[in-house]
Each structure stands twice: as structure tokens, then as C-alpha cells.
Design brief:
single chain, Rossmann fold, 5 helices, globular
Length: 172
């Protein structure tokens, strides 16, 4: 009987340790989410750096609400008013700064992923640069440049330990 009892105790001890090891393996993985969005509606003011329209400001507010369940760690936007203003509501509500990147920076995709392993970030770009950035991040030529009239696209990219695992395209 003692031998049987000792076997049961050892079995459950080994099972518990194995379960804890499996839990640790899962929690040690770096799950990274990169959310890429095209800037909201811009004014047609004849300049190269127009601000958002009233509709664009409403869309920026909607974006903040849509992303409310994400614990965002960092925000990135190009140096243009329209991308900065698209992320301004998120930045203000979460007390985050907006980091500036150049949309033609060939290393940005690799660098931003490496710098933000295990985090959730949002990147605002343009009709041509947002799909191009997504394609670089996922390692595929899957998405075409957006039409100038399209402001509704948002990509949610998921990486595990820096390796791409899924992309979701949302309309908002």
C-alpha cells in the first residue's frame, strides 16, 4: 500500500511540474502585434502636408475606440500632419508619444519588429506605404497600394518570437 501511495504522489508531482514547465514555455514566447493603418481623411488644401478633415478626426476617434482592448506600447507615424493626427487620439488617451519614421526607410520594418518584440504597436502610414510595410513585415507581396479614396483599412499582424504567423485585414 505504501508503494502504491508513493507512486501516486510521485505521479502527481511529476504531472504538476510538467504542467508548470508547459505554462512557462507558453509565457516565455514573445507575441508581437503590429497594427498598420492608413491615415484618416485628409483636407484638400493644396499643400503637401494637409491636416485631417472633420471626417478624418472622427475616424481617428473611431480608431481609438476600435483598439480599446489592445494594450498599445508604442505609436509610429510618418512626419506628416495627417499620420500624426490619426494617432493623436490614441496617444492622448494612453499617454504615449508618437515616434516618427520615414516611409521610405528600407530598414524600418525589420528594425521596428526587433525593437518591439513582445509588444503591441500601431503604425500610421499612407495609401502606398502602409500596404508596402505590411508586405515587408509578412515577407509576401500580398497587398496592393490603396486607392487614394480608401481610408478604411487596418491590418493586424501577429508574430511569435519574431516569426510572422497571421495577418488580418479589417475595415473600420
Amino acid at each position: 500500500m505504501k508503494l502504491y501511495l508513493m507512486f501516486v504522489v510521485l505521479f502527481f508531482s511529476a504531472y504538476t511540474l510538467s504542467s508548470q514547465d508547459m505554462a512557462n514555455v507558453h509565457t516565455e514566447r514573445n507575441i508581437t502585434k503590429v497594427i498598420v493603418v492608413r491615415h484618416a481623411e485628409k483636407a484638400d488644401d493644396g499643400t503637401k502636408d494637409p491636416p485631417l478633415t472633420a471626417a478624418g478626426k472622427e475616424r481617428a476617434t473611431r480608431l481609438n475606440k476600435i483598439l480599446a482592448d489592445f494594450t498599445i506600447d508604442a505609436l509610429y507615424a510618418t512626419p506628416f500632419k495627417r499620420t500624426q493626427e490619426t494617432l493623436a487620439v490614441i496617444a492622448e488617451s494612453r499617454k504615449l508619444g508618437v515616434k516618427t519614421y520615414q516611409p521610405n526607410d528600407a530598414n524600418f520594418a525589420k528594425d521596428v519588429l526587433q525593437e518591439n518584440l513582445g509588444k503591441i504597436i500601431v503604425v500610421a502610414g499612407h495609401s502606398n506605404s502602409s500596404p508596402a510595410l505590411v508586405n515587408k513585415l509578412i515577407g509576401q507581396e500580398k497587398y496592393m497600394a490603396l486607392d487614394e479614396s480608401v481610408y478604411t483599412k487596418l491590418w493586424v499582424l501577429t508574430f511569435v518570437d519574431g516569426v510572422f504567423v497571421s495577418d488580418d485585414l479589417w475595415n473600420y
